[in-house]
Design a protein that fits this description.
Chain B: InterPro entries: Bact_solute-bd_prot1, SBP. The complex is a heterodimer of chains A (306) and B (434). With 306 residues, chain A is mainly α. In chain A, 74% of the residues lie in helices and 3% in strands. The longest helix of chain A is centred in the first third of the chain and has 36 residues, at 67-102. The chains are: A mainly alpha (306), B alpha/beta (434).
């Protein structure tokens, strides 16, 4: 405590040092935020701002077509992307991290390999997979047919029942390195004596994982879950590469960012800027609201477990 | 830990918001304008913006012709990435360092700029506009005042491309009647060739295929006029029949057509695995580049019995205009350039150098295939209906037909249901007759 006090700068000097960062934050974060908010409160004629309309753009978003039916549909797809990512991305990431943690040999190599797709642009990943999954030329179906699994070969991206899950899996394929690295670091930081104590008490390896390791990872699981939620809500490049701006087939892969994109830049509607800004604000509020609630709840869980 | 999460949450979520606010425009430095030979005073540099990054060199050559005739004006042609162009242009035209003249979109996507007062009406500025075809000018009109806000740049036509070698191998000829068309599809199917290369995974491509195959069946320009007059809507039996025809022709398309991408369909056709491709005139450059040995032919699909029209048609649409910025500092020079952009001299350069159809009267095409497509369009033009009249609101007609067509191909709806999807969607902002 005392050391911290001596290290502290006099308040005016501290404020001076904060100024550059605060200025950058204001110009590049606060200003665009405030702009989007004000845009959503006005009516627009093309690029010209007209009069203040209060919440009318938001009311339009929830009561008029096509938004009334497209907004819940897109939001539902974002929620499924999140649920899918929790299973296909974070759970798999945790298991891989755990397995790699047990075996030091080749750990680095596999960490790098699993993290590689992370470094490629998501648009490129999306187009790559759309080529791999093509029903005409794609090697995935060709491989399935070659080993006699003809019944499993699907028009993966052409069937509304499978298309969204393809988006989930491709996203997981790209991002699995993220939970892998975070969980790997957390596992490395755990005190090995707790493991040894559990072992001396005769706990099996499964018991040690469930009752010792997992509870100790709770704070990290919380962080990864919240970040996954945010990424899932903002998903754009992979759905766009796999299903186009209208969420093909037949809207099965439509998500909030695509709805925003279509509303803002794809229609000739006069009030496009007003309504699309309202979409952005709604998305922002959902992300902040759910993330804060989620964080609070997880803090409670954490306290009970530790 | 929790505070860190909250902070991470906040900063990541902000990304969603910054999406909502337009990014500031790229700087467009004003290069020093050196007067050409024969110019006594100072030269004026005009900034001209475009979304055709692939055509920069060609446009520089084209504008050299203009600069030679107008030594006191230099043209500074700048192209921006197609996918980002609309945002950049909106910011440029509302700010201070925008273009003097810009390529602007046609029909619905032109309206935000017209309504925002960013473009000048050109009816009195460019007298030559009076000689343009109405169908071309429709793409440049303001929705509310009907004034022309751009000099039409290009026209696209939609027809069926075919591989002449495959036709010859199977003893086939361009169809004269609907029965011929069905018979040749059957022959190709028996010969293990995919008759129609269609990719319905890309929603935007579905209405193109629909109009290429069935525009004459629902009545082409007559149906467009009936909709404008409020005499019918998209649930019209003729329109439903045309959608049924699309469904009937699905057997000649690749299996799982909703999983086939537009680019897959292109490859299917250029690699000789499919015999026909229902698509736009803009495909020609790609087809010839992808397979230089490909011998191409085009035809219009004859209408089936009981169609609204007794002759085949070629749907077409205006594709881009030259607009005049309302905030230009060089009004007189910009008008000189716009006037030149409406001359047959420029139109011929569009045809010869850019390989596009120019709507300027009197242009001729050296490529016989291009000339044939243009002649077919001139003989029996039709509108690419959902793009031409139904992109003035949200949702746009082409997106609706994309979704309806995908459901139709998947068997999730029938022809009448697909027509309902289009009609119900459009009714959010469109009432027949208005």
């Amino acid at each position: 405590m005392s050391r911290r006090r001596t290290a502290a700068l006099p308040t005016p000097v501290a404020l001076l040092f904060l100024l550059p960062a605060a200025a950058l934050f204001a110009v590049f974060v606060l200003y665009p935020m405030a702009t989007a908010l004000t845009y959503s409160l006005f009516s627009w004629r093309g690029t010209a701002q007209e009069e203040f309309v209060g919440a009318a753009n938001f009311v339009a978003l929830f009561t008029t077509e096509p938004y009334r039916s497209q907004l819940p549909r897109a939001f539902g797809h974002n929620a499924l992307l999140f649920a899918g990512a929790m299973v296909a991305q974070n759970t798999v990431g945790l298991l891989l991290a755990y397995v790699l943690h047990q075996r030091a040999r080749f750990r680095r190599l596999f960490q790098v390999l699993f993290t590689m797709p992370y470094l490629v642009s998501p648009l490129v990943v999306g187009y790559l997979w759309s080529l791999l999954l093509s029903p005409l030329f794609g090697p995935v179906n060709a491989l399935l047919r070659a080993v006699g699994l003809d019944a499993v070969a699907q028009p993966w991206l052409g069937d509304p029942d499978t298309a969204l899950w393809v988006v989930v899996l491709v996203t997981a394929w790209q991002w699995v390195g993220f939970p892998l690295l975070v969980y790997g670091a957390a596992l490395g930081a755990l005190d090995p004596s707790t493991q040894e104590a559990a072992m001396l008490d005769g706990a099996s390896s499964a018991q040690r994982f469930w009752h010792v390791t997992l509870p100790l990872l709770t704070p990290v699981i919380g962080t990864v879950s919240v970040l996954t939620f945010i990424f899932s809500m903002e998903a754009f490049p992979i759905p766009y590469a796999l299903g186009g701006s209208s969420g093909s087939p037949a809207g099965a892969t439509d998500v909030m960012s695509l709805l925003f994109y279509r509303t803002a830049f794809h229609s000739g509607a006069s009030n496009a800027i007003g309504v699309s800004s309202a979409v952005a604000i709604v998305l922002f509020l959902v992300i902040v609201g759910v993330s804060v609630a989620f964080t609070r709840w997880f803090r409670g869980v954490e306290r009970r477990l530790t | 830990m929790s505070r860190r999460i909250t902070r991470a949450t906040a900063s990541a979520a902000l990304v969603a918001l910054t999406l909502g606010a337009c990014a500031p425009s790229a700087d467009s430095p004003e290069p020093g304008a050196a007067p050409g030979q024969g110019c006594d005073g100072d030269a004026v540099a005009l900034d001209v913006w475009s979304w055709r990054t692939e055509d920069v060199k060609t446009y520089d050559r084209i504008f050299d012709v203009f600069e030679e005739a107008n030594p006191c004006i230099t043209v500074n042609f700048q192209a921006h990435l197609n996918t980002e162009y609309d945002q950049i242009l909106r910011t440029g035209l509302t700010g201070s360092d925008g273009p003097d003249i810009a390529q602007v979109r046609s029909y619905g996507l032109l309206q935000p700029l017209v309504e925002g007062g960013n473009l000048e009406p050109l009816d009195d500025v460019v007298p030559a506009l009076g000689e343009f075809d109405d169908a071309a000018l429709d793409g440049a009109r303001g929705r509310e005042d009907g004034a022309v806000y751009g000099v039409p740049l290009a026209t696209q036509t939609i027809q069926v491309w075919y591989n002449t070698a495959i036709f010859e191998e199977n003893g086939l000829e361009e169809p004269e009647t609907w029965d011929d068309f069905v018979a040749l599809n059957d022959t190709l199917l028996e010969a293990d060739v995919t008759p129609l290369a269609v990719g319905a995974r890309d929603g935007w491509f579905v209405p193109t295929v629909h109009d290429a195959l069935t525009a004459a069946q629902y009545g082409g320009a007559d149906f467009q006029q009936a909709l404008r007059d409020g005499e019918t809507d998209f649930t019209d039996p003729a329109y439903v029949d045309s959608i049924q025809t699309l469904k009937d022709l699905q057997q000649y398309m690749p299996d799982d057509v909703t999983g086939v991408a537009y680019t897959d369909a292109q490859v299917l056709f250029t690699s000789g695995q499919a015999a026909m491709f229902a698509g736009g005139s803009y495909e020609q450059a790609f087809f010839q580049e992808a397979n230089p040995d490909l011998e191409l032919g085009v035809f219009q699909v004859p209408p089936p019995p009981g169609s609204a029209l007794d002759h085949p048609v070629t749907p077409g649409y205006a594709d881009g205009n030259w607009g005049l910025s309302a905030t230009t500092q060089h009004r007189a020079e910009s008008e000189t350039l716009l006037t030149w952009l409406a001359t047959p001299e420029f139109g011929q350069l569009v045809a010869d150098e850019l390989k596009q159809f120019s709507p300027i009267p009197g242009v001729e095409y050296a490529d016989p295939l291009q000339q044939e497509m243009w002649d077919l369009y001139q003989e029996n033009p039709a509108p690419y209906l959902l793009l031409v009249d139904y992109r003035y609101g949200d949702p746009v007609g082409t997106d609706l037909m994309g979704e309806a067509g995908q459901k139709l191909f998947l068997g999730d709806t029938d022809a009448a249901g697909a027509a309902d999807i289009v009609q119900d969607g459009l009714s959010a902002w469109w009432t027949p007759g208005e």
